[in-house]
Amino acid sequence: MPDLSAAGNCSKNSWEGADIASSVTFAKEPPAALTRARKYCSRGLPWVGKGSLALLDQGLISGSNFLIGILLARWLVPEQYGAYALAFSVFLFAAGFHGALLLEPMSVFGPAAYSKCLPAYLGKLLGLHSALVLLLAALVGAGVVVLRYSTLGRGLAAPLWGVCIATPSILFFWLCRRAAYVKLAPSLAAKGASAYCLVLISLLLAAKTLGWLSGFAAFLIQAVAATAAGALLLVFLQPRFVSQSGPSGSEVARRHWRYGRWAMGTQFVYWLSGNAYYVIVAGFVRMDDVAALRALQNFSLPFIQCVIALSLLVLPWASAKFAQEGRQGFERRIRQITLLFLGGASVYFAILCLFGGRIMAILYAGRYTHFAYLLPLVAAPVLVLAASQGSTLAMQAMQVPSEIFFAYTLAGVTTLGAGIPLTRCWGLPGAAVGILISYLTFFVTISHRCRVRLREPLAIADEARRGEELGIEIL
């Protein structure tokens, strides 16, 4: 691969991951066994601690998002909540481009090319972030103006203006959180998540008490919480906006574009395979059904977020195993990962099937209970997601992101080819079936391509070399 260490004239600075000191007391053993045990613990315990902090960070963010989803569904009328859910889908669409062009490349180039000048690198990224989020906010605002001439515009305009205002702040917080992980400081990310959670809940309760709660207000509350948490992280990250030793802005932009243009396509088809159903339901059914779809999917989100958090931890391990054990050993590891995720998904799905109706009645104060019969169908994709996660991680570890893009593209085509007709004919149940079919399409495609790749080691090596020529590396 190219010499990433040559990127920028970077000088050594004090940005280093926090050390985790551990003391372990062992029973009396033979010297050789004691030495091996101490060596194992000295390697593993720091990462256990960091992994726990990463899960805490993800749990706080996921818990905050889950709580705001539940409370809004409980406090807002269905039409308002449906408009909020649709607007949030638009936000995720815009955020996908930000993640593809800034966050994902930062996770790759930050630890490799700019490890010795991270503050200067972050300063350049914040400049690029400002330009990109202003563009995204302007596009959302233009969409709101156009939407005034649509039948959806009456109830959707206010939440979309909230998206327009909140997008820069929320994405700023996401950038700072990712920078904390690049710094190998999940404890810092957990501090930011704690601040975000505290401010979000306080403002949400205050808005409810004062009678100000709405879809627009919900986005403003998230923006204020994200700004406060991002500012806290920025104090510790200490970016350098003017530096003689760091990389140039044009160099960072060029590297990120070269990597992110491929990830950007993946983000688009990923959104099309899932979140686009909110737009489809709004177009063919009622806004109340959009609210019901979001209310049902709220119960799948905690497990999905857990899968994302665990995948961030498993991916570096899977990459190392692929390099150490070769094709046969790696295939065995992938089966173990798949069984791990699938086992957890099966337990989670069983709980939802057995107690989901009662949980919905309690959390939503009796609302949306007439849609409870759809909960097993709406939650079924968590099983498919878990079953496909091993193959997805394998593709990332083998540095072939094109296969993930291909699988999501087929899932997106399924959304257009099957999801739209099913929703038009059967309404919300049809949309739930369409979502499940899109997930199954991704699972079948990624699993098949994973088997093919694992049985073609030469092709994998060629693809990896082509990725190196493009400067692409998935960590």
Write the layout of secondary structure elements.
Elements: H1 31-75, H2 78-112, H3 118-147, H4 153-182, H5 186-210, H6 215-237, H7 249-273, H8 276-284, H9 287-297, H10 301-363, H11 375-379, H12 381-397, H13 401-426, H14 428-454, H15 457-470
Describe the protein's architecture and organization.
The chain has helices spanning 31-75, 78-112, 118-147, 153-182, 186-210, 215-237, 249-273, 276-284, 287-297, 301-363, 375-379, 381-397, 401-426, 428-454, 457-470. The chain is mainly alpha-helical and 475 residues long. 81% of the residues lie in helices and 0% in strands. The chain contains 15 helices and no strands. Mean pLDDT is 82; it is low at 1-9, 11-30 and 458-475.
Structural class: mainly alpha
Oligomer: single chain
The number of E-state strands comes to: 0
Tell me about the largest β-sheet: none
Query: Could you report the average pLDDT, rounded to the nearest whole number?
Result: 82
The tally of structural domains comes to 2
- Low-pLDDT runs of 5+ residues are 1-9, 11-30, 458-475
Strand content: under 5%
Order of helices and strands: HHHHHHHHHHHHHHH
The total of helices stands at 15
Kindly, what is the distance between the CA atoms of the first and last residues, rounded to a whole number of angstroms? 13 Å
Q: What radius of gyration results from the CA coordinates?
A: 23 Å
Shape: globular
What portion of residues is helical?
A: over 70%
